UniProtKB/TrEMBL annotation:
This is Amino acid transporter transmembrane domain-containing protein. Its main location: membrane. The chain crosses the membrane at residues 70-94, 122-144, 150-170, 182-203, 231-251, 263-286, 306-325, 346-370, 376-399, 420-445. Residues 43-438 form the Amino acid transporter transmembrane domain. It is a multi-pass membrane protein. It comes from the Eukaryota. It is found in: Membrane. One of its GO terms (cellular component) is membrane.
Amino acid sequence: MAADASKKNFDEELVGVPSRADGEVTDAVFGNVEEGGPDYRSVGWLGASVLMMKTEVGLGVLSIPEAFNVLGMIPGIILLLVIGGITTWSSYVVGQFKLKHPQVYGIPDVGMLLFGPIGRDCLAVAFCLFWIFIAGSAMLGVSIGLNAVSTHGTCTAVFVAVAAVIGFSIASIRTLGKISALAWIGMFSILSAIFAVTIATGVQDRPAAAPQTGDFKSNWQLVGSPTFADAMSAICSLIFAFAGVPAYFSIASEMRNPHHYTYSLAMCRGIAISTYLIIGIIVYYYCGSFVASPALGSAGNLMKKVSYGLALPGLIVSTVLYIHLTAKYVFIRALRNSKHLTANTLIHWASWIGCVFTTSIIAYCIASGIPAFGGLVSLMGAVFGTLMCFQPMGAMWLYDNWNRPDRGSAKWTAMVSWAIFVIVAGTFLMIAGTYGSVVGLINIFAESDGSAAWSCADNSNSV
């Protein structure tokens, strides 16, 4: 009964678009926004779209050619489209759910509506761990880039620390509206880098990892023959490429008009899926089994320097965005329904900086402790990517549509079946993918030249 009462009270919080009265803004998530306080509702639909793209087109795309190498060209393309289709539906459900329940800021709030305080707290832990681990992956990507550009100018552990300091400094910006300007730079940066590598792999004689003497012919395969563990690990890398979905609640919450969310989603997914297909097909076709992960190292030492030089701003923005999203959820959770959430008070600033700093430190420890990019990406896609992109969205659709007027119709039955399929598929992929990813990480650390925790070794040499 207590859990039901908590859900009812949460569901009856302020709803609707922001209203203004006497110079004050009332919002379903942020409450009363005082004049002079941060303007959280400042993201337009274009800004929202580029924020969505930046949560996805970055780290994920760099592992797609390697996933194709494991699965083969045809299974890789089919699975990429299938996962893209499911997560696009999940993303659409997020937008519809946000309109019906404006007080929801993130997946944990969904857990509160569906399952009460226990559901909220369980999903809150998963949500925060997911973004912190991805922030760690982004820091690792920055360290690889700095190593590549500087030809291992200093200890890798120092580069990871530099990434953490930069991430913390910029992520302290309080609103996504301002960070969206950086997201444009980040998107241009990462797209320039990956298309430069794509073109280079097509015009060069052979990939960097291939034998440099004798005749060379790409050994790409239509269909691969991976072990179960390898296949699941590769599939989870593809899931990771679309794993920006849980951030969409936060982005929609800071949009000036959440009704424009679908426009932002359509633009984001159109560009993302097209980019993933182009990069995956072309790079794998020309590199075959000699493709690197991250893919920016596939075209030789010179292009590795060029591509990472182009990509560094994008990798830094990714780090910033992932730290910001995690810190913002904890910040709102701690100060919700308090004047300190939106007023420039000492408690407001101390809480915000503390959340950003703590998130940055934990992400830094993860980046230094698991310095294997491909394995970390796959593990995140398996453990948290499915949990954040599949099961909750199926449950959200059932929550809002179980008792709708056409219940029992063929359309309703088909959609119920689809929602249940998404939940079941996500659960299977989470369990099987975690197994495959853990096996892969164990193999990486077992190699004599494998990466080590807090190592000074050049982590760009293996890519």
